[in-house]
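F.,

This is the one I mentioned.
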């Protein structure tokens, strides 16, 4: 699981399409101005609450939604759950000012790929966005520590195969399905099938939860 900034790798020629969701206009405008400095990113829309976020996500189909969690009308956790259910290809990066444990866990359970505090460095934010766009798990270090501490590892329905354990370890390191496929020399659909089986055996809902399972079970570390 990636918790520290890594060099940002070049993406494809197409920009990463972003939807900014925050109930404070100043925050959205500040983010928009900062993100506009990166030519690989494109802010395609904004929303002031979770309800608007769900509607905008359906209309714009962004690659990544930068989601505040504490908002009126519909909070970020509920909005994340709805967006991920309707548009699994859209990743959600939770960005909040407070590290409230119930919100951290709820955001991950809702399907957020990443979790950052608003006091994170600009480099960390850009890195998290690029990781999210590739479907890679990225958590603020403090959030990762709390999540691992509080995560309740479920009992497996069936034992994982050696190949599934390896893929689980790669997920915990923040690898996307494409990167895992390249590393193992197999097709991406094959990796996708393995990931689905892993989640089924562990009774988990997301690759972020799978990464936490690997950390809790001692199959991977935060470093």
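My design for it:
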């Amino acid at each position: 699981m990636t918790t520290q900034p890594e060099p940002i790798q070049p993406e494809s020629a197409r920009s990463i399409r972003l939807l900014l969701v925050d109930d404070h206009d100043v925050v959205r405008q500040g983010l928009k101005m900062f993100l506009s400095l990166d030519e690989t990113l494109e802010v395609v829309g904004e929303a002031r609450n979770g309800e608007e976020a769900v509607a905008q996500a359906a209309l714009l189909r962004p690659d990544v939604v930068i989601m505040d969690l504490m908002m009126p009308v519909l909070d970020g956790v509920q909005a994340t759950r709805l967006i991920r259910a309707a548009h699994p290809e859209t990743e959600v990066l939770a960005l909040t000012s407070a590290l409230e444990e119930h919100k951290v866990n709820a955001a991950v359970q809702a399907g957020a790929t990443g979790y950052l505090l608003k006091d994170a460095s600009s480099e960390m934010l850009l890195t998290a966005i690029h990781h999210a766009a590739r479907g890679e798990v990225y958590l603020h270090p403090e959030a990762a520590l709390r999540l691992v501490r509080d995560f309740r590892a479920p009992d497996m329905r069936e034992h994982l195969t050696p190949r599934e354990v390896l893929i689980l370890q790669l997920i915990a390191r923040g690898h996307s399905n494409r990167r895992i496929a390249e590393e193992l020399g197999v097709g991406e659909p094959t990796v996708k099938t393995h990931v689905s089986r892993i989640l089924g055996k562990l009774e988990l809902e997301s690759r972020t939860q799978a990464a936490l399972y690997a950390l809790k079970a001692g199959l991977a570390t935060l470093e």
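The domain at 153-216 is CATH 1.10.10.10 (Arc Repressor Mutant, subunit A).

Talk soon.
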